[in-house]
Write a structure and sequence with these properties.
Blueprint: H1 2-10, H2 17-24, H3 29-32, H4 50-60, E1 71-74, E2 77-85, E3 96-101, E4 110-114, E5 122-123, H5 140-156, H6 179-185, E6 191-194, H7 202-215, E7 221-226, H8 231-242, E8 247-248, H9 251-261, E9 273-277, H10 278-281, H11 284-296, E10 301-305, H12 324-332, E11 338-342, H13 351-361, H14 375-379, E12 382-383, H15 387-393, E13 429-437, H16 439-446, H17 449-468, H18 479-495, E14 507-513, E15 516-525, H19 534-540, H20 542-554, H21 618-622
Parallel strand pairs: 6-11, 6-12, 7-9, 7-10, 8-9, 10-11
Antiparallel strand pairs: 1-2, 1-5, 2-3, 3-4, 13-15, 14-15
């Protein structure tokens, strides 16, 4: 037995943990009860300063040098040690250390680590104050500037009329770009919609607000959601112009977090400023951990939603089926304390859709389904400026002016021949149906008081449209044309179900004038594909299809909102449309000769919103 004991004592067992287990199998029982003959194993060496090296040396002696109040560097960030829980068995376990972040963008965030397992953990050396007085005192003007800077900083932290972010941005700021910042600082919680025209700098205005409220310590966590094509642009703008470091939250970032820190880690807790695309927020794999993160840290959180009109419902119905992105935004926006929406096209033409978007922004002031009748209520949450308005309000402001016209390319037109007796043409093979209306019936219908009242209302809408496009030479087409045009759209929708052509393949031509009134539905192409015979067959049963088309226009899936629409409504800006929407009259623009304008089904048939101005009555539909 003595020989066995001597052999084991001379063997370098501390070099291989597997060696102990193998040797202990052959040790006598009495040796197992003695004092351990091998020294405790020191934790692996780490990259550290002098204090960290001392901690490693003490750990090799079975002790641990970390104490409360020390400043350490873990995961490339500075932390304050708040709790140290030594391992019960230092040889095999690790030390649990509770930390509090000292970085500006994540102050106070807690982190718990196993000290020996962190590859870059180090104890930062204590500050040395001896060099402060080595150069003597500052000059009076230098110290005065420093003192005034501190005073100014303290004042601007509480005064909403004094700004700091414009002086810390690497850009040339226009005066009008400070208006959103001013309005945001006057709000107890930032619930603001920046709806400036394209090219006025909505990104800069958002960056000024973010920089300002971060310096005032109102926000600790920020999520910017934008289309996937703008993610890298947002990151570059925030970094280069405002010194704000954002992490792009994508599939690669999620994969790396789980690979480095385990599958159970919530990636949203690894940073405080993220940029994520709209498409990823639709995925529950990304939205679910975001909800968990916000439920724990709702205070001091902010959402910046770029191109916010994508989150609005697509139809005007109060109870329309929302898209996946709209549903996610309804779930996520209440979890943020501050919300900032950006869009150059905030209104999609449907009042209920617009109010639903504003209800996501500020549910305390606005409710989904309620029309905003008071402009002052909208001014409280929205900043909307157009380029034409700013040119008049700000003298000397140089903004590119949009001009629509023909492009002069300096090409001289050549004559077809010395004596032009012919013109180029293309032979189309096709088919069509022409419906003629009695002129006296149309004129008698137009003289009715209800029709005249409706025509005046539509003409007033045309005047509003004319103010937006003063260079246009178009004239109001009149009620007969709008009636025939609306009926043509209803017929295209009806006959496309049976004629063999899609609605986009059928074209229209409306005739309304002194020469007569009529509708031509046709299709054609330079080959034989335009002669399937479907429209000719429809013409043989045109009375039946005409009745079906008129019944189709009596009710819309968006009624009563669609039927009650007025061309004079300034908020929706659909000045050339009466009772018309995508649910009833709007078709493919390649089929319409007026690009889906000058439509009103109330002139064709009685609707739930207007009666008396219809051309076809119930008696007409009852005729054989």
């Amino acid at each position: 037995m003595a020989s066995v004991t001597g052999t084991i004592s001379e063997a370098p067992l501390n070099k291989s943990p597997i060696g102990f287990a193998f040797a202990l199998v052959y040790l006598p029982v009495e040796l197992l009860t003695r004092q351990p003959f091998f020294p405790p194993i020191a934790p692996p060496a780490i990259n550290s300063g002098s204090s960290a090296q001392a901690a490693v040396e003490q750990a090799g002696k079975g002790e641990f040098l970390l104490s409360l109040g020390q400043v350490v560097k873990v995961r490339s960030r500075r932390y304050l040690v708040e709790a140290v829980e030594p391992a019960r068995e230092p040889v095999w376990e690790q030390t649990l250390v509770g930390l509090s972040c000292l970085e500006d963008d994540a102050q106070g965030e807690h982190l718990s680590v196993l000290w020996e397992r962190e590859p870059d953990a180090q104890v930062l050396p204590e500050p040395n104050w001896k060099h402060l007085a080595s150069k003597g005192f500052d000059a009076p003007h230098v110290f005065s500037a420093y003192l005034h800077a501190l005073r100014w900083n303290l004042v601007t932290s509480t005064n909403p009329r004094l700004f700091q972010s414009p002086h810390r941005a690497g850009i040339q700021i226009m005066s009008y770009q400070l208006e959103p910042l001013k309005k945001a600082l006057q709000m107890p919680r930032v619930n603001l919609f920046i709806a400036d025209d394209v090219g006025l700098g909505k990104t800069i205005e958002a960056g000024l607000i973010l920089r300002e409220i971060i310096m005032r310590q109102k926000v600790k966590r920020i999520v910017i959601s934008c289309p996937a094509s703008l993610v890298t642009q947002w990151q570059g703008e925030m970094e280069a112009r405002f010194g704000l470091s954002f992490v792009i939250f994508d599939r690669d970032y999620l994969f790396n977090c789980r690979r480095e820190r385990g599958y159970a880690i919530n990636p949203w807790t690894t940073h405080s400023q993220f940029i994520v695309s709209h498409s990823l927020l639709r995925d529950e794999q990304y939205a679910s951990p975001l909800r968990d993160w916000l439920n724990q840290h709702r205070s001091g959180s902010m959402l910046v939603l770029d191109e916010a009109h994508h989150a609005a419902p697509a139809t005007s119905s109060s109870w329309a089926v929302d898209s996946d992105f709209t549903k996610k935004m309804r779930e996520l926006t209440p979890l943020f304390e501050h919300r900032l929406f950006l869009s150059a096209t905030p209104h999609n033409g449907h009042s209920n859709s617009f109010s639903a978007l504003l209800a996501m922004l500020d549910p305390q002031r606005l409710i989904r389904g309620e029309l905003i009748k008071d402009p002052r209520l909208l001014d409280q949450v929205m900043v909307r400026r157009l380029k034409d308005e700013l040119r008049e309000a700000v003298p000397g402001l140089k903004l590119p002016k949009r001009e629509v016209g023909e492009l002069a390319i300096g090409v001289n037109r050549a004559a077809l021949a010395d004596e032009v007796t012919w013109v180029p043409a293309v032979e189309n093979r096709g088919e069509g149906v022409f419906i003629s209306f009695k002129s006296e019936e149309v004129r008698a219908w137009r003289k009715r008081s209800e029709v005249s009242k409706r025509e005046i209302e539509l003409a007033e809408g045309f005047k509003f449209w004319k103010k937006q496009y003063p260079n246009s030479k178009a004239d109001f087409v009149g009620a007969p044309y709008m009636m025939l045009h609306s009926l043509a759209h209803l017929l295209i929708t009806q006959v496309s179900l049976e004629c063999g052509y899609s609605s986009s393949a059928i074209r229209e031509r409306v005739y309304a004038g002194d020469a007569g009134y009529g509708i031509l539905l046709y299709t054609g192409s330079p080959d034989s594909e335009g002669t399937l015979g479907g429209l000719v067959e429809i013409g043989r049963k045109i009375d039946q299809h005409l009745r079906n088309a008129i019944e189709l226009g009596r009710l819309c899936s968006n009624d009563p909102v669609c039927a009650q629409h007025s061309a004079k409504q300034m908020l929706e800006e659909r000045f050339l449309l009466g009772a018309a929407c995508h649910g009833c009259l709007l078709i493919s623009e390649t089929s319409c000769e007026r690009f889906n304008q000058y439509l009103d089904r109330s002139l064709v048939v009685a609707t739930v919103g207007a009666t008396g101005a219809e051309f076809f009555t119930d008696q007409d539909l009852a005729l054989p």
